[in-house]
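Priority: low. Protein: Sulfotransferase. Input follows.
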Amino acid sequence: MDDTDTYLLNFKGYYFQRATVDIDLLENLEDFEIRDDDVFIVTYPKSGTIWAQQILSLIYFEEHRNRTDNVETVDRAPFFEYNARKMDFHARPSPRLFTSHLPYYLAPKGLKNKKAKIKSAEGK
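Result:
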């Protein structure tokens, strides 16, 4: 017996952990409003994602740099497709940092034609 469908969700050819993925967000990814000053950390799993999150947090958030605000990484640079804290991404103040393991074909179309910054595992 195969329990794959119990644990994994196949969305447009890409597998997500069913228990943690926000299906409504996935269905509306294409039209997510991208701001020009958004920063996306797009990496393969296990390729230094947390390091990139920490480094960019130090650059973008003075409170984190000065250790005056103890905010968890998942709150400073949340995973875009796994909205674990159920935060309102639209209400987040700019600049917004997001982390993702999404393949290019699932990325919001605004990310492909806006001025948002994309940091990949390869540093591009």
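The two ends are 43 Å apart (CA to CA). The longest strand covers residues 8-11.
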